[in-house]
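Preliminary data (for renewal application), adenosine-5'-triphosphate complex.
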Amino acid sequence: MEVKNWVRLEFPSESENVLFARTAVAVFASQLDFTLEEIEDIKVAVSEAVSNCVIHAYGDCSGNIVVICKYSIDELEITVEDNGCGIPDIVQASEAGYTTIPEERMGLGLVFIHELMDHVAIASEVGKGTKLLMAKRIPRSRE
Ligand SMILES: Nc1ncnc2c1ncn2[C@@H]1O[C@H](COP(=O)(O)OP(=O)(O)OP(=O)(O)O)[C@@H](O)[C@H]1O
Ligand SMILES: [Mg+2]
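Predicted structure:
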């Protein structure tokens, strides 16, 4: 990937920063040739990823979240990283309806992220943290 531009955001895992992160990423992505609908998809995916760090990675504790966005000529790539509790089984966590907080959550965030983005990869280590990478292709021309 030949990176044309990038931005790095780091913030504490406060729930109000979910809105900040998704808006900041949307503004960055709006430099590119995405439709408003695609920008909306990116916002939802970032919200879900950052919410997961706030809710699951750190729980009642606080920690930092790092969001890096970069783009090449044909792809926007976003990574969302935490140093929280980690995910023991990524395949199971990605199943529709699987959640470790069934009283409150739907277990659909990771499913939405897979649907809205073109490529998703999750790396995680229990007790160390999680890094979610998601990418969306930039349409070359809409004519
Ligand atoms: N960053 C993370 N750190 C630790 N665990 C995570 C992280 N992201 C996801 N998980 C685990 O994966 C499960 C599934 O995540 P997913 O976003 O699909 O559902 P959810 O957050 O439980 O519910 P919803 O997103 O519908 O509110 C979570 O319940 C949690 O156990
Ligand atoms: Mg979630």
